[in-house]
Amino acid sequence: MTDLDRLDAALLDALTENPRAGVVSIAAQLGVTRNTVQSRLRKLEESGAVSGYRPVLDLPALGLPLQAFIGVGLEQARLPQVISELGRMPEVLEVHSTTGREDLLVRMAAESQEAMLRQLERLHAIPGVAHTTTTLALTTPVAYRTQPLLDHITRGAGHGRSTPAAE
């Protein structure tokens, strides 16, 4: 685990807002040196806290307006095979192992209801899938985000690793 402070949170916020921003630009925005930004980024990457810089895709703008969350119940001991098959489906955006009635939570995207139905039929045909529960997403009033959580966990952490917060 990496100990984050408010400078780390501000750095991650700047990268979230503009992942293509250069180190010099971020340093100027945060009022720190280029070396500080480079050092912080390197430590975040080496710790695994930051693992990539990806574009945020607008799926409806790409012709994929329909998203579904599918709870998948499995037959015993079939988890690896089912996950492998789900990984081969390009419409599968993510898969989470879960507790409760379902064993997996699968997020899928489709261009239409008919396409989603075909994907669900393919999912049901995977050996080891016992049952599913499908919930269609109508809107996304709060998109995936991390900054409020980072701000919360770094509140009071100071603006430097050795500087206590001045409130």
TrEMBL record:
GO BP annotations, alphabetical order: response to amino acid
InterPro entries the record matches: ArsR-like_HTH, AsnC-type_HTH_dom, Dimeric_a/b-barrel, Tscrpt_reg_AsnC-like, Tscrpt_reg_AsnC/Lrp_C, WH-like_DNA-bd_sf, WH_DNA-bd_sf
Pfam family, one: HTH_AsnC-type
Protein name: Lrp/AsnC family transcriptional regulator
Lineage: Bacteria, Bacillati, Actinomycetota, Actinomycetes, Mycobacteriales
Domain of life: Bacteria
UniProt GO MF annotations: sequence-specific DNA binding
GO CC, any one term: cytosol
Keywords: DNA-binding, Transcription, Transcription regulation
All copies of domain HTH asnC-type, residue ranges: 4-65
Keyword Ribonucleoprotein: no
